[in-house]
User: What shape does this take?
Amino acid sequence: MTADLLSELAARARRAAHPAAESCACGADVTLADRPDATVVRHAATVAKAHAPGTPPDGLAARLSAAAALPGLLLPPLGPPAGPGPRTAPRTPGPATLHGRVVTFWPYGVPVDPDDPDAAPWEAAAALLAGLHRSPAPAALPPMRGPAKAARAVARVRDGAPEHPATAPVLRAWATLPAWARDESPMPDTTTLCHGDLHLGQLVRHPAPDGPWRLIDIDDLGTGVPAWDLARPAAWYACGLLPPDEWTRFLASYRAAGGPAVPAEGDPWPALDVPARALTVQTAALAITKAAAAGRPLDEVEEALVDACARMCSVSPQLATSFAK
Assistant: This one.
């Protein structure tokens, strides 16, 4: 099924890139991702994405509409032109279905270079998040899926690696979190527009190759606690995995852009503590699951995440910076 899906998805991307041509000289199709939750193929300047099986069409439609309405913040999807009148550009495809999975189409953007950490666009990411958090959320938008993804990661490690020695401290740390962070009750904020899964892999330059940065991947977009979108870099900093100057640049840029997730001045950690702890548990749980499946030991970074989970259970939940101590 994976080979068939990739082949047919590539064909859809080619047709979307060249709707009126029978062939092209653009070169080979490029597989950008092939995971259970997303299969993504690029052809020329067009990207086709098969979303996770079981993706609710109504929720995805609301998220696509939100992305189309905020092209200065989110990469807008390709879709059929709206309204009457003459068409001055080729029709581009809206969502389709392939092997029971919803397929959407996007313009290609240049991602962050993982081999050049000094060029990481922390300031741009922070400014985009602040703008997103200040934007009105569409009425039909579902809750952002951050807590649901964390709960799914914990369920995977509980089921897939129950005897792994690192699993116990991760589950204990999970149990210290409030119910909303474990996706067991509604989030306390249901009005703020959030990305839901912010990391540097969620930014691209568009138009390629050197246009402004835009946020991508709207699968988790929704309303919720905006501090969740700052939680991954906060957790990395607290665990000693993100240099203090990079965290400071990110936080200062978010505040300068008027981001509402943390106070404009003073200690940000009362707002960040729970989401940062949740993202630490989620990341540690995924690491253990992958290591157990591969039959390998945890690496140094993965050990640091598990150690942070162990410390969560032994200190009062006051400062996320306690993870690294």
Notes: The chain is about 40% helix and 10% strand. The first strand starts at residue 30 and ends at 35.
